[in-house]
Every structure is written in C-alpha cells, then in structure tokens.
Amino acid sequence: MTTEPTQQDSAPLVAIVGRPNVGKSALFNRLTRTRRALVEEVAGTTRDRLYGFVEWRGRYVRLVDTGGVEGPEADPFSPMIREQVLTAINEADMTIFVVDAAEGITAADEAIVDLLRRSQRPVLLVANKSDRRGARTNEADLYALGLGDPVLISAYHGMGIGDLLDRILDMVSDATRPEDTPRLRIAVVGRPNVGKSSLVNAILGQPRTIVSDVPGTTRDAIDTPFEYEDNAMLLVDTAGIRRRGKIERGVERHSVQVAEHAISRADVVFLVIDQGEATVAQDTHIAGLIAESGKGLIIVVNKWDLAEFPDERHTFARRVDMRYKFVPWAPVQFTSALKGEGIHDLLELAVHINEVRKRRVQTSELNLVMQRAMSEHGPSAVHGKRLKVMYATQAEAEPPTFVFFVNDPELLHFSYRRYIENRLRETFGFEGTAIRMRFRRRSEDRHELPA
Fold first, then answer.
1. pLDDT digits (tens, 9 = 90+) for 153-178
2. CATH class for domain 184-357?
3. Three-state secondary-structure class, residue 288
4. Which residue in 356, 287, 290, 355 sits closest to 321, CA to CA?
5. Of 277, 350, 382, 418, which sees the most CB atoms within 10 A?
C-alpha cells in the first residue's frame, strides 16, 4: 500500500497559502471551476489540504488549497493547520501567497512571508479583493514584502484571473495534461467523531488529514490517490453527516452537501460506525442514502480494540445485521484505526465489491433463473390478477440494473420484489452492492416466461 506519485500527480503542483479569510478557497474554486472548497466568512473554514486541476491555454497544473495560518491562541486547530500548510509548501513546485488588498498587510502576513522564504520555493504574491474601494492605496505595501510584482485580482468577481494564470504558467516548467488513471473511488462517511479521519490515516499510512477528538474537524471532502496491491484507488475523507434537523447554516450545511456528493461519485462507501454506539438511528439514515445512490457499501465497525468483549464479533455482527436489515447485502468489517487492524481485509473487500458491481449477466441465463424462481414460488394474485414476467434483461452495470417487462407493474407486491432480488443475489453473488430493478409494462403479445 503506497501513496507514490502517479501519472495524475505528474503535473506541477501549486500551493495556495495565506492567513484566514483572505479568499484562498474562493480562488481555488475560481481556478478549478468547481465549488469543492468551502467558502464562508468564518476564519478557519478550510483546515485540510484540498487538491484540484487547472487548465489554461492547453496546459495543466495541480492546485492545493490550504488552511489559514495564524497564531495557535486563535484556533485550537492552528498547530495542525500549520503542519498541513508546511506539508503543502514542501510538496509544491511553487506557492501562491494570497493577501487581502482591501485590508492591507498584517503582522500575520509578514510572518508567512518569512516562512515562505525559508521554503526556498518560487512565490507569487496575489492581492485578492482588489476591486474594493481603497484597495489600490495599499499597493506600495505589497511591493514592500519583497516578493516582486503582485497580481491584483478579485476571486469573487473573476477580475485578473487570466493574468494570474499566465504568471503561474511562466513560473512552472512543465504543465502538460497527464492521462487520468481509472481508480476505485472509496468514500469514507459517517457521523462526526466516529474515527473516519483516523481510518483514512491508517489506510494511507501517513497523516494525510487532521485527526482530532473534537467532532467536525474535517469539513472538506479530501481526495487522495493511492495504490493497494496493484489496484489504483482514490480515497475521499468527508465531514460527519448529521440529521437534517440538526444541520446548522453555513459551514456545516456545506459539509453535509460535500459528504453527500462524495457518496454520489463513489464506487464503494465505507460507512464508519463506532462500536460503542452501533445502533444510532443516524447511521441507518446514512446507509439508506448510500443504498438509494446505488453504491457498494461496507459497514465498518471502528474502534474494535475498545470493545468490552472483542472475541464476540459474530454476536455483534448479528446486532448490526438486525439494525441494517434493509441492506442485508452489506458486509460488516471490524477495524481498529489506532492499531491498524482489519485495514487490509477492508481494502480487499472493497476491491471485490468493485468487481461485483461491474458484473454482467447474460440475458438467457437471467431469464432461466427467473423462470425457475417463478415456478418455485409464483406471485400472489391481486384483485384476481397475477403478475406475469414476459422478459428480463440487465440494462446497466455499476450498479447492476435489471429491467423486467411485465403485464402490470401495479401487481408487484414489495415482498415478491424482495424475493426476486434475493434470488438474483444468491445466484449471481451480488455481495456488497446495491442493485436496481425496474418493472415496466409490456403488452402480452410477447410470451411470458414459462412456469
């Protein structure tokens, strides 16, 4: 398991740094043409590193957004944020130093300049919010920092972005587009403080994200490409999802949207639950979101090293199965992020589920299975009419999607739908993934499956 640079990592890396609330994340979103970075008028919104691609004039660079650097007395996360920023600077080929043109240069800005000089990396000074009244009066102070000609921009309004991109390309050597490597996308989701970031760190074998005992430390979705036994993977750590009624406006609302988006673009989702709180209703709500999205799902029981009876895994797993009986196909995996236990089994299971999601069933074989299933247990009559299946086929994979042409979809009882799904899973081994079944009306000109 490694995090060695891949083809996708070969483009030059540009780090965005600065003190809090100068518009770093707004600039990241503007350059990458996304809304991945959280933008709020609250200092410290961005804490972890967030990566993205930028294309300009046929050339490409990678961009990394970082948390705001300030004194440790201002934010309990400041030492950790500072460590993440230093890591980004050391990884980068060059640094964009963002200051607030309207507010002027502060002592915190000057301290960051000293830090950047020690890094011995090329630095481009960017004065954001330059469209605000009075901003130009601080231009002399910008030159006094000794970082050369500043680029005056407004990330919010898009002013000066073209000039900025030209300057970036002038300062990096090679910015050709790398080929994208197909990767198994794994989203790590769950309630706040169940150990998601610790699990990510255990998987990657390095402090890729900030880990804290304070719920809600991770706010952005953080993509990390890595390799596991010749399998290219992409790991997404997300903010904790809370019940919609308990979601505050602003940062936390955006965090939930980011987490739900991470689920939507994942292949397999790790739903992390705390062994000490295994039957919380919110966990089942998240599992429902994953199932509705048609994703692969592994229920990860984390912190198993703290279990009162660690040898009773089967008993505990049965409790989990009862709680999550609406997703009986989802396997349960026990891990200890602190001790690194169960991590390899978890990743092997993710690889297996990803292959299952790609599985295709021949139409002839599918109809033969349906014929046997209906002959062994036919549907019950509804108001004197009985469901007839004329034909079945697999329409899609990832997730496996089956279409059944029937005489009247209204005659399908939910219990018989569940029976059909169980037969498909038993026969074709669709472990760990949601499957979709669509029942469409078809005229009875076509012969139904023989009983």
1. 998 888 999 999 999 988 886 655 44
2. alpha beta
3. helix
4. 287
5. 350
- Separation CA 310–CA 114 (nearest Å): 51
Please give the distance of CA 43 from its chain centroid, rounded to a whole number.
23
Four-residue CA torsion sign, 278, 279, 284, 286: negative
Whole-angstrom distance, CA of residue 115 vs CA of residue 97 = 11
Query: Given this chain, do its domains 184-357 and 363-441 carry the same CATH topology?
Result: no
Alpha-carbon torsion (192, 195, 196, 197), positive or negative: positive
Q: Alpha-carbon torsion 29, 34, 40, 44, what sign?
A: negative
How many Å apart are CA 166 and CA 56, to the nearest integer?
8
Q: Identify which of 90, 41, 96 has the alpha carbon closest to the alpha carbon of residue 65.
A: 96
Q: How many CB atoms lie within 10 A of CB 299?
A: 25
Cβ burial of 213 (10 Å; 0-12, 13-18, 19+) is exposed
pLDDT, tens only, 378-428 = 888 888 898 999 989 998 899 999 999 999 999 999 999 999 999 999 999
Coil vs helix vs strand at 315: helix
* Rounded CA separation 91/102 (Å): 30
Residues 6 or more apart in contact with residue 322 via CB below 8 angstroms: none
β-pairing, 401-406 vs 389-396, is antiparallel
Q: Are 273 and 190 in contact (CB under 8 A)?
A: yes
Task: Please give the CATH superfamily to which domain 363-441 belongs.
Answer: K homology (KH) domain (3.30.300.20)
Residue type, 110: E
Q: Which amino acid is at 114?
A: D
Amino acid symbol at 352? H
Instruction: Parse the chain into domains and list their residue ranges.
Output: 8-171, 184-357, 363-441
pTM recorded for the entire structure? 0.63
Q: 180 in helix, strand or coil? A: coil
